[in-house]
Amino acid sequence: MPDRGDHRAPARRAANVRLRAGIAPRGCAPLARSRTLYCAPPVLELIDLRKTHGRTLALDGVSLRVGAGEIVGLLGPNGAGKSTLVSITAGLLPADHGEVRLDLPGGRGGSPRDPAVRRQIGLAPQALALYDELSGAENLRFFAGLHGCAGQQLRVRVDAALEFVGLSERREDRVKTYSGGMARRLNLAAALVHDPALLLLDEPTVGVDPQSRAHLLDNIEQLRAQGKAVLYTTHYMEEAQRICDRVAIIDHGQLLAVDRLDSLLASHAGKPQLVVEFPDGRETVETDDPLASLNALAKDRAPLGFRVERPTLEQVFLQLTGRSLRE
Ligand SMILES: Nc1ncnc2c1ncn2[C@@H]1O[C@H](COP(=O)(O)OP(=O)(O)O)[C@@H](O)[C@H]1O
Ligand SMILES: [Mg+2]
Hints:
Blueprint: H1 9-20, E1 42-53, E2 56-67, E3 70-75, H2 82-89, E4 97-102, H3 115-118, E5 121-124, H4 136-146, H5 151-164, H6 180-192, E6 198-202, H7 210-225, E7 229-234, H8 237-243, E8 246-251, E9 254-260, H9 261-268, E10 273-278, E11 281-286, H10 290-297, E12 305-309, H11 313-321
Parallel strand pairs: 3-7, 3-8, 5-6, 6-7
Antiparallel strand pairs: 1-2, 1-4, 8-9, 10-11, 10-12
Bound molecules: adenosine-5'-diphosphate (ADP) and magnesium ion (MG).
Adenosine-5'-diphosphate binds near residues 56, 79, 81 and 84.
């Protein structure tokens, strides 16, 4: 396979620097005309975030927006900088450079370092943040209380959050008796129990059974329908493809591309591939019209079978980095 990665990286990086600065890449239409890069209204805006941990450069100038009613995926391999970005966005870690701004409909905007602004954020951290010795309901009462809920409002929110993630029947059981999938669902409930406008979900489906994964993904789609802004980090491209409105690809602390899924696939993943099996071997062709290509290939000999392989985010990542997301 030809090397489609590194030799184009410098030009792409230069274009990204211009994008991060809010300037159209050379030769492109002005950003104001681009539907795909900016969402309206942005609830979260990250501007040129940089962060080093000791000698490790974890974030190298990341800018991103997330709008109300939108799921933005942050897709990248382990070590790409996703959790660092989430911690800074949640106001838990200071950036070395750059800015995090929340602009909340009817709420207080500004930096998440301000506790009143932070209350509008719900965080589901990658490392489960739950008390094993407490029940599911006690955990949620604790987290709702931390965010200023009390009395009847607290009871209603805790009940609603448990119902939402499908844990009402296990509400009085200690978390240490939960399966991995149930604990992940409670971790999501703890993030949303105080009804925040912005949800930061850091690999929310890691290590869960298929049933809990499906439940979690449905939940996250419901949050979008409620108008929440969702930043969703994952290293599973299938999840990003299924639920995200836009996908930001991150590697080595840099955003390599941010766009709608269909635009990313069209720009970086190549054409669909038609694979046709013949008695004497297999033929593979890249084609925009698989049916026409199949007819042409099958004109003189009968195929045993065929399949069409659609482009995936895996190919996008490969083209942008020269490496596989799964490596
Ligand atoms: N507290 C820390 N101290 C030192 N290095 C860290 C720390 N947190 C993260 N890193 C390093 O920063 C880089 C980005 O990590 P992280 O943000 O956790 O990535 P991801 O969530 O995408 O796996 C990695 O190289 C990681 O080893
Ligand atoms: Mg992480």
